[in-house]
Amino acid sequence: VSRPEHRPPPSRPSSPTALRRRRPFHAMYLARSQPEGLALALLSMVCWGSWSNTLVFCGSRLRFELYYVNYVVGILATSVLAALTLGMVGVADCRQCAASFVADDLQAGGDRFGLGIAAGAVFNLANMMLTKGIQMCGLAVAFPLCIGTALVFGTLLTHFLEGGEGSEAALLFAGVAVAFAAVCTIAWVHRLKDAQRAAAELKA
After folding, report:
1. Spatial distance between the Cα atoms of 126 and 69, rounded to a whole number of angstroms
2. How many folded domains does the chain comprise?
3. Which 3-state string (H, E, C) describes 39-94?
4. Angle, to 10 degrees, between the axis of helix 169-203 and the axis of helix 139-161?
5. Within a domain: residue 137?
6. What distance in Å separates the CA atoms of residue 182 and residue 180, rounded to the nearest whole number?
7. C-alpha span between 174 and 156 (Å, rounded)
8. Is the pLDDT of residue 57 over 70?
9. pLDDT for position 118
10. Residue 51 resides in a domain
11. For labelling alongside 52, which of 24, 114, 126, 133 has CA 20 to 30 A away?
12. Does pLDDT of 91 surpass 60?
């Protein structure tokens, strides 16, 4: 007696869930290891310490207002480019990754957008005054003076707003005291420099 031919069961169409799993998941790029985070922090410090040199290179060949307009356009272009590239990285089968820039940004409420815009306005105003200070006092004086002052007040404000959670108060206040002493020293040296320059002009 011949046995009936065995036929494989018809393949079922893939479910929508399975299809979604096969597609790349677009996520926002985040540092996931300590060496990676350290490398990004060092790159940030290099960029943070070098952008102001462009103002020194421009000198009197470009007015401050025009320079700052170009500076803001560069910030906007870089932010949009980073959001549409590093903010939309394709990752296969990574459901634990952060959402993409567009998906994450659209979930925020209107009050969050308002806070972000207000923070950007305050930061932009501070950068404008910092850039003008660099033009007036020089890079070696204005940059440490402004950044040191921001470090001192920002650290103290954050510490008291968070209630001191997760921080060693003794080490924190010791570091803030050293930074404040450095800021005062810079201001004192700049005052001595101005006094010596004024005395030299009177003698001449």
Report:
1. 15
2. 1
3. HHHHHHHHHHHHCCHHHHHHHHHCCHHHHHHHHHHHHHHHHHHHHHHHHHEEEECC
4. 150
5. no
6. 5
7. 12
8. yes
9. 92
10. yes
11. 114
12. no
Q: 138: alpha, beta or left, given left = phi > 0 and alpha = psi -120 to 50?
A: left
Residues 6+ apart with CB under 8 A from 18: none
Structure tokens at 197: 């320059």
Region of 93 (left: φ > 0; alpha: ψ -120 to 50; beta: rest) is left
Residues 6 or more apart whose Cβ sits within 8 Å of residue 139? 52, 53, 55, 56
**What DSSP state is assigned to residue 184?**
H
Q: Domain limits at 34?
A: 30-107
Cα separation of 163 and 157, whole Å? 10
Report which residue type is found at 31.
A
What is the distance between the alpha carbons of residues 141 and 145, in angstroms, rounded to a whole number? 6
CB within 8 Å of 91: residues ≥ 6 apart: 24, 25, 26, 27, 97
| Domain-embedded: residue 198 | no
Does residue 128 carry a pLDDT above 60?
yes
Amino acid symbol at 199? A
- Residue 170's identity, in one-letter code, is A
Q: What pTM was estimated for this model as a whole?
A: 0.61
CA distance 142 to 130: 7
The answer to whether residue 204 is domain-embedded is no
Strand partners, 83: none
